[in-house]
Amino acid sequence: MTAQTFQPIAPRPAPVQNSGAIAWIRSNLFSDVSTALMTVVIGGALLYFIPQFLSWAIFRASWQPNFEACRVDGVGACWGVVTEKYRIILFGRYPFEQQWRPLVATTLMLGLLVASCTRAFWRVWLLAAWVVVLAVFFMLMYGNVLGLSKVETDRWGGLPLTILLSTLSMAMAFPIALVVALGRRSNLPAIRTFCTIYVELIRGVPLISVLFMASFMFPLFMPQGFTIDVLIRVLVGITLFAAAYMAEVIRGGLQAVPKGQIEAAATLGLSYWQTQGKIVLPQALAMVVPSIMNNFISTFKDTSLVTIVSLYELTGALSLALNSDSDWRPFKIEGYLFIALIYFVFCFSMSRYSIWVEKQVNRGRQR
Fold first, then answer.
1. What share of the chain is helix, strand, coil (3-state, %, to 5)?
2. pLDDT, tens only, 145-161
3. Burial (0-12, 13-18, 19+ Cβ within 10 Å), 42
4. Which of 150, 168, 189 is the last residue of a domain?
5. Directed axis angle between helix 80-91 and helix 332-361, to 10°?
6. Same domain, 101 and 163
7. Residue 10: exposed, middle, or buried by beta-carbon count in 10 A (0-12, 13-18, 19+)?
């Protein structure tokens, strides 16, 4: 028997950490030479510009509502324009002494939106809450009841108008988009042709044209003495525009559902609407959640275009505030940064909520 010599096993390298901040930095910022080079270049640029921006925006900024203090040499950003004009920016031409009404109405609307996005509040009473809050919103904004003075819709503006237009247009555009998307896949030529013409016609023109037609051209076709409020016309225009784009998003989700799912539903004896409601639409909508939310965000930002029809939402209210006072006009950059911050907060919140919804609807696939 030959003697066996002990041969130690060579030491193995320690396992690479695949979780935590260091692992994230290694995999996302320094995974290869080109990525590391771009990280260094972009990081250097940020280290150069961020201190200058902070110095201008915070450390040397003027917060006093005094335009003369903003013109002193060495002063950075003049946030005094926001301090001085914030009520006009947020509420537009709404009567100054009555601005508590749009404040309460907007707070109620935002609170209901947050509740609607929370799973714990997904109950039947939520639909009744929407009816009540919308009624209270219009009652507070328009007035002429319970001793409230009447305020015409052309004087509504600022954040309340932006929230109203975006919320209602999204809520009304979604069911229209569902019907149009199903119509474009219908076996009936008349329905399919009508839905196709609607989508192609709306997508073939910019939103400005739709708003211009709704505000200025549509009244010309109305009978003598019959008028529709400009706010309603604009709301309908934005809704139809958003629905056309959303219909194509949903149609893409419908086409992605395997045909075998539909054939299996037919084998089980399900009707067309049972198949769509219980099998096809749940899968299709789950696949296009990011695209639908992208459409919502786009609609929210597109409300800024209503300024062309003399409805002064956030950006229009800012222009109104600065154009009426030449002393503050040179500091419009600060005003637009304030508006950009408001838009960013809302759009970023919708984006994060979209990620949460996407995780919820895809939970079944991850098991």
1. 75, 0, 25
2. 888 889 888 888 889 99
3. exposed
4. 150
5. 60
6. no
7. exposed
**Residues near 125 by Cβ (< 8 Å), separated by ≥ 6?**
none
- Tell me, yes or no, whether 182 and 122 share the same domain: no
Tally of structural domains, the chain: 2
Whether 285 has a pLDDT exceeding 60, the answer reads yes
Residues 143 and 157 in one domain: no
Q: Retrieve residue 32's tokens.
A: 């290869």
For residues 296 and 350, membership in a common domain is answered with yes
Domain coverage including residue 265: 76-94+152-366
In whole angstroms, what is the distance from residue 141 CA to residue 93 CA? 12
On whether residue 40 sits in a domain, the answer given is: no
State residue 64's pLDDT score. 83
- Alpha helix (H) ranges present in 217-362? 230-256, 259-267, 272-275, 281-287, 289-302, 314-323, 332-361
